[in-house]
Amino acid sequence: MLTGFPLKEYLMKIKNEDGNFKEKWIPSEMLSVYTQLPCGDYEFLDQSRMSYATPAWLPRETNPNGTILLIDDYTRANSLFMQATMELINTGRYISWSLPENTNIVLSSNPDNGSYSVTSLDSAQKSRFINFTVKFDIEPWAKWAEESNLDNRAINFCLSYFSEIFTEANGLKGINPRSYVTFCNAISGIENWDKPENLAMILNISKGCFHDEENVIGSLFTVFVKNKLDKLIAPKDMLLGDWSTIKTKIKQCVYDEYNNYHPEIASVLATRLLNYAMLYFNTKGSETKKVQERLIEIIDNDTMLFSEDLIFNIVKTLAVKNSAKMNKLMIHPKIRSKMF
């Protein structure tokens, strides 16, 4: 309910802790609370007014850093609600109340293209906000997936084929991050993806999740498993494992049997390592020595494991977000030569 309920208020003078009186509008339902104050601590003024109670879901106080009022799935709401919010969206006010200063209203909605059950917006409604088409961004998704402990193999698959998975030009209109996470959760309990019977089950799950008769995701998944990309080293091992073993495993991932370097695989591993390192910083607090030492070992390794641009991105991101914890790394000669 947008307007709440009709509310009668009375103007009173209330004594503050400093002994001064301050005028305040008191709802009729709260009068019994204030009239229990000691005599002389309050005074009724001969004024009253009728207004509407502010809905509980609206922000109450001004935030100097700004407040966001998010109305999710706006066009799935009852049309009466959508009509009622037109003035709120346009001016930030509704009858007797208004939003705090620095409040930004954000509406989210699925597109009105026939693929979703939404209510169409008329010209008057559209004129009250700026419309943007939001596209899938793999970087924040990958960070969220790492924090949510999503299946390692499923994260690698998404990082390897995200442009193919989430591009409608490929005809995959039923695929979005939510349906992909459903797919990930459904297959995470399957241990060996390369077993024929397990792979067949995964392909059937793919068809059920994405409603794609051609099963494009299933085809990509088959290639992913065939290339053994589901066997890539986990980021936790890259960061915390014994370096004498880990450097060999990373090399086996980014180089093929003919010693050809595969930058696309290195990019996936670098993204996973960066996101896990940031998660490690957040959970381990001041225990950052391991992160710095491992990055230095990667940089100083005889064989290039990550290209200079990948190393630069990892160090820059960690330095920006955790500058106080990256002192040792920033004085490393190879890092200084690239950063300054």
Primary descriptors:
single chain, 340 residues, alpha+beta, 4 domains, 3-stranded antiparallel β-sheet, two-stranded parallel sheet
Q: Can you put this structure into words, describing what you see?
A:
With 340 residues, this protein is α+β, with helices and mostly antiparallel strands. It contains 16 helices and 7 strands. It folds into 4 domains: 6-52, no CATH class; 67-126, no CATH class; 139-230; 235-339, no CATH class. The chain has helices at residues 31-34, 79-84, 86-91, 123-126, 138-147, 152-165, 177-187, 196-210, 216-226, 235-240, 243-254, 263-284, 289-300, 308-321, 327-330, 333-339; strands spanning 6-15, 21-27, 42-52, 67-71, 93-94, 97-98, 103-107. It has a 3-stranded antiparallel beta sheet with strand order 2-1-3, with no helix packed on it. Strands 4-7 form a two-stranded parallel sheet. Strands 5-6 form a two-stranded antiparallel ribbon. α5 crosses α12 (263-284).
Annotate the secondary structure layout.
Elements: E1 6-15, E2 21-27, H1 31-34, E3 42-52, E4 67-71, H2 79-84, H3 86-91, E5 93-94, E6 97-98, E7 103-107, H4 123-126, H5 138-147, H6 152-165, H7 177-187, H8 196-210, H9 216-226, H10 235-240, H11 243-254, H12 263-284, H13 289-300, H14 308-321, H15 327-330, H16 333-339
Parallel strand pairs: 4-7
Antiparallel strand pairs: 1-2, 1-3, 5-6
Helix pairs in contact: 5-6, 5-12, 6-9, 7-8, 8-9, 12-14
The percent range for helix content is 40-55%
Mean pLDDT: 84
Query: What series of H and E elements makes up the topology?
Result: EEHEEHHEEEHHHHHHHHHHHHH
Strand arrangement, major sheet: 2-1-3
Tally of distinct domains: 4
Helical element count? 16
Secondary-structure-based class equals alpha+beta
Which regions have little confidence, pLDDT < 50, spanning 5+ residues? none
**What proportion of the residues form beta strands (DSSP E)?**
5-15%
What gyration radius follows from the Cα positions, in whole Å? 29 Å
Oligomer: single chain
Task: Give the termini distance in whole angstroms.
Answer: 57 Å
Global geometry: extended
What is the number of beta strands?
Answer: 7
Could you describe the largest sheet, including whether it forms a barrel? Answer: 3 strands, antiparallel
